[in-house]
Amino acid sequence: MELAQVRLLVTDFAACYHFYGEVLGLKPQSGAVDGPYEKFSPAVGSAGIALQDRTMMAEVLDELGDAANGHRSLVVLRVDALDAYCEEVTMRGATILHGPAHLTDRLRVAHLKDPEGNLVELQEWLLLHG
User: Fold this and answer.
1) 8 A C-beta contact, residue 8 and residue 75
2) Does the keyword Lyase apply (predicted)?
């Protein structure tokens, strides 16, 4: 078994496409700016984050037709230099809600939200720095 992707069901596909591609700098698989589906991948690794139009999935599972409420996901991305990456994404339109700050003695984090309100945690693993 291999984790292929984490898929987020979104209502504003274009805004989320822009956030994951342009703001966070992940690479889109096909360039389907208008959806209804797109997978984004980091420069390293094979797993990715995919966006899918929520109305498309509601055709399969009726319960998804209801509006999403509360925090239903937390996307975690590891970066090498947290402070520098936070500066980059802020210049591209992201709003950092928390951090960068130590979560533990081995981990620094920052938190932001995508246009749908999904939480994104940026992690810097301090043990990798020796």
Assistant:
1) yes
2) yes
